[in-house]
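User: Hi! I have a protein structure encoded as tokens and I'd like to know what sequence might fold into it. I'm fairly new to this, so please keep things simple.
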């Protein structure tokens, strides 16, 4: 089948916060996607509330722009390492990539990860040095580092001969000539993103199409419509498909066995800007959105006949962490949200796993508990927050690392490279913090930043040593530190790591906390709850100063009598409450504790609630 030359498929890849979504904003604006009178918000591609709140891209999303008579399909991808699965699965949809690199920070761990995947797919890459307006920009050095990265990752001669574009996505301009950058910065020259459009049309090849004329499409993404149900998104690799056409879905079941289904396409869409436009037929090379089956999953092949074999499924790197999700069994279950049954919890987690190929779901020996396997704490935190906003109540356990064994039976654990950019004044504290978690300092670069007051450190550290490290790192650097990681693979087990050395303050009864009772407990440790908070037996209300647990009464009231002391009573108030965020709770809990998650609250509790059934000694705690 003849493919139109007026079609390009590209993705935008980069490390987190290097400007991908901002660049897409201006590509859409300058391509005339929006009307002049149309009001458009910043970061228009961030469709989820969580993406806007956190300022990061979580899900890969499609859009398109029309440049002259050529349509350019664009996929915006996440930059955070925990969402690398989103990047891996869309690589087969595109023929080229825009690699964004910050002009000051240079290539970082996720830059290496996404570039490695792009080069392995044989994609043509255009290097975009973004944020050249930063006062601490070091453009020439960053270009050299990027070239070294291409060579280090085994780029072919054609891939290593990449074009370089210097851009300021925030102001909506770019240039191929680095000598023109000062003129753009001081306003002497007005620019646009047209050089980037021209380079895409010149360097990125049209879509590759298989030789036969039968319809085939690999499902790379999923969406949902309230009107037509599940939507399959992917690039058509051969043939064409019409609305109402009978096609075959080739997939696998939960056990990995081949599964086949025949259905008719009820709706067909392609992308025009941010909109999905209903069309009667979609041809090879284009990215299509197809409806008609509720069973489609990522990695399935859609074919026009039984004779066509399935395409290679999408596989991503295996998970490194596991976390138990459980039905909420606390006495306050159902008071603040929907107390879901095990069937509904399993269905919700199964739906997430089908849409996110980087996650896995495992059954456990307990009927109301399920084990989710993923890439990192942030990935779990996003899933938990999404379920909270869907009005679910549930419990989660302490994340555990997934170990392996080598041929000789030696235990292996996942290792990661942590790259830290921080003020020089915090180097000592940060180094001690990472070395206490078995981190090995492999690189030290000083004198970065505008005034040379920042330092870049690289540590090779076990994945379990990074659990809860991000919030502690930001505290030590007073919010001025940058933190990114890259999975290196599996290495020898590093031995025991120091975790929490303190015990828990546990409520010994049900009721509402009283300020008088909490005041009496301040000398025993740090409180997590204030007055007027409902508690129950077995709920954790604070952190004990010592290593053993302590059952306490936070509901104790002052006795009311008509006898008063001779001196005036002093006004005494609580000295402070430590409000625990979800990420802090995940890092803090032990194996014998749960985090109870509801739409309104996050509580900590013991797995065994009755105080006469559990020991307060650390060595005798029940897992």
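Assistant: Happy to help. Inverse folding works backwards from shape to sequence: for each of the 623 positions I chose a residue that suits the local structure. Here it is:
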């Amino acid at each position: 089948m003849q493919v139109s030359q007026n079609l390009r498929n590209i993705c935008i890849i980069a490390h987190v916060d290097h400007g991908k979504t901002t660049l897409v904003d201006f590509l859409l604006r300058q391509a005339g996607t929006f009307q002049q009178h149309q009001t458009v918000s910043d970061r228009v591609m961030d469709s989820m509330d969580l993406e806007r709140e956190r300022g990061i891209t979580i899900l890969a999303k499609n859009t398109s722009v029309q440049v002259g008579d050529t349509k350019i399909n664009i996929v915006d991808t996440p930059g955070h390492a925990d969402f690398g699965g989103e990047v891996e699965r869309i690589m087969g949809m595109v023929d080229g990539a825009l690699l964004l690199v910050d002009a000051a920070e240079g290539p970082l761990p996720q830059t290496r990860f996404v570039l490695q995947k792009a080069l392995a797919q044989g994609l043509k890459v255009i290097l975009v040095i973004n944020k050249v307006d930063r006062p601490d920009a070091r453009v020439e050095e960053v270009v050299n580092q990027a070239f070294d990265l291409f060579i280090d990752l085994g780029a072919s001669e054609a891939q290593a001969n990449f074009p370089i574009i210097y851009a300021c996505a925030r102001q909506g301009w770019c240039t191929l000539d680095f000598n023109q950058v000062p003129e753009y910065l001081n306003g002497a020259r007005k620019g646009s993103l047209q050089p980037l459009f021209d380079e895409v049309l010149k360097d990125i090849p049209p879509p590759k199409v298989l030789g036969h004329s039968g319809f085939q499409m690999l499902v790379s993404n999923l969406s949902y419509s309230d009107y037509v149900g599940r939507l399959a998104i992917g690039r058509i690799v051969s043939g064409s498909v019409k609305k109402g056409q009978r096609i075959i879905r080739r997939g696998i079941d939960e056990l990995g066995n081949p599964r086949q289904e025949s259905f008719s396409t009820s709706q067909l869409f392609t992308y025009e800007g941010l909109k999905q436009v209903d069309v009667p037929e979609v041809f090879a090379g284009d990215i299509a959105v197809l409806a008609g089956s509720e069973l489609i999953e990522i990695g399935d092949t859609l074919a026009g006949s039984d004779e066509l074999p399935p395409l290679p499924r999408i596989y991503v790197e295996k998970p490194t962490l596991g976390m138990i999700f459980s039905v909420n069994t606390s006495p306050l279950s159902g008071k603040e949200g929907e107390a879901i049954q095990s069937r509904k919890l399993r269905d919700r987690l199964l739906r997430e796993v089908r849409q996110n190929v980087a996650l896995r779901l495992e059954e456990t020996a307990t009927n109301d508990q399920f084990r989710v396997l993923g890439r990192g704490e942030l990935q779990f935190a996003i899933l938990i927050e999404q379920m909270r906003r869907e009005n679910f109540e549930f419990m989660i356990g302490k994340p555990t690392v997934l170990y392996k064994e080598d041929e000789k039976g030696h235990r292996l654990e996942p290792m990661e490279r942590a790259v830290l950019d921080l003020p020089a004044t915090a180097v000592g504290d940060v180094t001690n913090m990472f070395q206490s978690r078995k981190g090995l300092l492999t690189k030290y670069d000083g004198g970065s930043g505008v005034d040379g007051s920042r330092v870049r450190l690289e540590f090779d550290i076990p994945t379990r040593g990074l659990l809860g490290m991000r919030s502690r790192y930001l505290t030590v650097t007073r919010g001025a530190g940058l933190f990114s990681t890259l999975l290196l693979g599996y290495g020898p087990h590093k031995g025991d790591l120091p975790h929490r050395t303190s015990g828990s303050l546990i409520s010994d009864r049900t009721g509402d906390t009283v300020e008088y009772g909490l005041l009496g407990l301040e000398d025993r440790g740090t409180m997590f709850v204030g007055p007027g908070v409902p508690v129950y037996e077995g709920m954790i209300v604070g952190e004990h100063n010592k290593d053993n647990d302590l059952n306490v009464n936070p509901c104790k009231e002052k006795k009311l009598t008509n006898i008063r002391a001779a001196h005036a009573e002093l006004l005494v108030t609580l000295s402070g409450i430590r409000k625990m965020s979800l990420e802090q709770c995940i890092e803090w809990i032990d194996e014998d504790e749960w985090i109870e998650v509801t739409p309104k609250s996050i509580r900590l509790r013991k797995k065994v609630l009755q105080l006469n059934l559990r020991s307060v000694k650390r060595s005798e705690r029940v897992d």
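A useful reference point when you look it over: The first strand starts at residue 7 and ends at 14. Feel free to ask if any position seems puzzling.
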